[in-house]
Amino acid sequence: MTGPESSRLPDGFAVRLDPGCLRPGPRHLLGGSPMRLLTLSPAAVALVDEAGTVTVRDAATAGLARRLLDTGLATPVALAAKETREITVVVPVRDDQAGVDRLLRALPALPVVVVDDGSAEPIRVPDDPAVRLLRLPENRGPAHARNRGAALAATELVAFLDADTVPLPGWAGILTARFADPTVAVAAPRIVGLVDAPWTRPVARYAGLHSSLDMGPRPAAARPGSPVAYVPSAAMLVRRKAFEAVGGFDEALRVAEDVDLCWRLADAGWTVRYEPAARVAHDHRTTVAALLRRRRFYGTGAAELARRHGPHAAPVVTSVPTALAAGGLLSGTRVGLAGAAAIHGWTFLRRRDRLREVPRTDAVAARITVRAAWFGLQQGFAAMLRHYWPATVAGALVSRRVRRRVLIIAAVEPALTWAAAVHREPSAPHPDPVTWAVLHRLDDLAYGFGVWQGAAARGGRGALRPKVTR
Fold first, then answer.
1. Cα–Cα distance between 132 and 213 in angstroms, integer?
2. Tens digits of residue pLDDT in 161-179
3. Residues 14-25 pLDDT 10s
4. What's 259's DSSP letter?
5. CB–CB of 93/123 below 8 Å?
6. Which residue segments constitute the domains of the chain, with CATH numbers given?
7. What's this model's pTM, rounded to 2 decimal places?
C-alpha cells in the first residue's frame, strides 16, 4: 500500500470555500477542476458558516471538510506556524558555492544535508554539527542527489531546497502546518524572484512575473489536469513516508522529475498541496540566453512525461464542442463565428437543463459558458504559439489569411498575459508591454522547440497529442 492509511482530518482543522467557487444558493456549490456541482443536505448547510468555513469538530464536519477538499471546492484555512524541528533540509548542488553559502545563512537551527553532485571544485560547508556534506564522485542529476540526501534524514519531514533559492521568514512553519491533513505528501511554497535580484533588467522583471516555477497567488491541490498541475522541486516539503512509498524521485530523469513525482503521488492517493502564503525566493535567470536555454530544457521533459503518464501530459485538454467553437472563433470567418455562436448557444442550453434545480439557473449557466469559451480560446492561443508553433509558422508562410490571424494572435495573447500579470501583482516591477511581448514570444518558441526536440529524441508524439473528450 503506497497511499495514506487514513483521510480523517483532525479536530480543529478548518477549510474555506475557494474564491472561485460559485454558490448560487445555500445548498449548491459549483467549482473545482474539472467543474462539478455539489448539492449539500440541509444538515450539511448548517455546518458551513457565513464566511464559507467548515471547522472539524466531529465525524460530520470531518466528512464534509474532506469532501470539499477532494472536489477542489475548498482550501485549508491558514494555521498558526508550527515548530519546525522535525524538518531536515536537503540541498542538491553542483558548482554553486555562492548559492550554498547564501542558502545556509537563511537556514538557522535546522539540520541540513548538502549533496555535492560532482562539482568541478568540491563544495565547502561551515564547521557546524547541523550541516552535513555528502560528496558524490560523479554528477548523476538532481533527482539522484535529492534521494541520497533524503536517505540520510531521520526526521518525519524533508525539505528540498535548490542552492539558488532563499527561503523567506516563516516558510517552514506555514508548510509544516499543512501536514495536519494526513493525506498530504507534499507542501510547496510560492517561488518568487530573489529580493536582491537586479530588477532593473527587463529579463529579470519578466522572469519575476512569468516564471515557470511560480504557480500563482492562490492555494490549491496540485494534480494532473488542474490549474496547478504540479509543484517544482526547487522548493518543496515532503512527508518522508509518502516519498519513500513511491520510490522518491525517478533518478532516470534529469528534467521534469518533480512533475513525475507529484503525479505518482496523486495516482497513489496522496495530496500535493500548494501554499503561496509560504514563500521561497529564487535567483531567476537575468539574460535572454539563459532564460531561453532553461525554457527549452524544461520543454524536453514533456515527451518522457507523456510516455509515463499518458494524457496527463497533453498540451491541450478540451471537448469536441469547445475545440470546434474555439476553431471557429480563431478562424475569424463569418461561417466560423456563426458556428462558434451556435455551439456556445447549444452548450448554454445543455448546462441550463442540467442546472435547472440551481437558483438563478440562467445566470449561472451563462457564466459557466462564457468562462469555458474564454478558457478554450486561451488554450487555442497558447497551443498555436507554444506547442504547435512549427505548424502555425508553416501555415502563415503559405496563406495570407492565416498570416494575418497569426500576427493578430501573436500580439493579443502577450497583451492579455501582461495585463493579467499587472493586475495580479500591481506593486511588482513590470517590463513595458513591448518588451514583455518580445520575451513572451521567445519564451514560448524556446519551450515549444524543447517539446519537439524531446519528442524527436524519444520517438513519441504523446507530448503533442491533445486530449479531446466528448
1. 27
2. 999 999 999 999 999 999 9
3. 999 998 888 888
4. H
5. yes
6. 14-76 (no CATH), 87-286 (3.90.550.10), 317-469 (no CATH)
7. 0.93
